[in-house]
Amino acid sequence: MRKFGFWESIVISIILTPVALFLALVSAGSGHGNYLVAKLLFPYTMLSTVVAGEISLIFLVLAFLQFPIYGFILALGAQAEKMKSVAYTIAAIHVFGVLLCFLLVSENFS
Questions:
Q1: Domain around 65
Q2: The pTM is what?
Q3: Backbone φ and ψ of 84, nearest 5°
Q4: Does residue 95 sit in helix, strand or coil?
Q5: Position 109 in a domain
Q6: Measured distance CA(8)–CA(74) in Å, rounded
Q7: Which has fewest Cβ within 10 Å: 3, 43, 82, 93?
Q8: Beta carbons of 68 and 21 less than 8 angstroms apart
Q9: Per-residue pLDDT for the chain (110 aa), expressed as one digit of tens each?
Q10: In a domain, 14, yes or no
Q11: Rounded CA gap, 34 and 32, in Å?
Q12: What's the distance, Cα to Cα, between the start and end of the chain in Å?
């Protein structure tokens, strides 16, 4: 099985970003849907709503950068030949963020 290299991780994460953003927006339904998909895919941005009561510009930018950041970190892990452990760490931190999203419910983004 061929290992992912530095650029593959980054390119894949950049391709996944608009797909994930689209799914989150469709799920939210312009405020008339629910935020389940957004919480699953963008937990850090959604956690900001607990504190601020809204999605501020800086956290919206974070949503656009989240997957490319993941890709870059995975790319560094691939270079160090530790991609598997880096991937598990990213996944664990992401899942922790998702759990916090469901434990700390925002009044307007539940």
A1: 6-103
A2: 0.86
A3: -60, -50
A4: helix
A5: no
A6: 10
A7: 3
A8: no
A9: 456 677 888 999 999 999 999 999 888 876 667 889 999 999 999 998 888 888 889 999 999 999 999 999 999 998 888 889 999 999 999 999 999 998 987 776 66
A10: yes
A11: 7
A12: 42
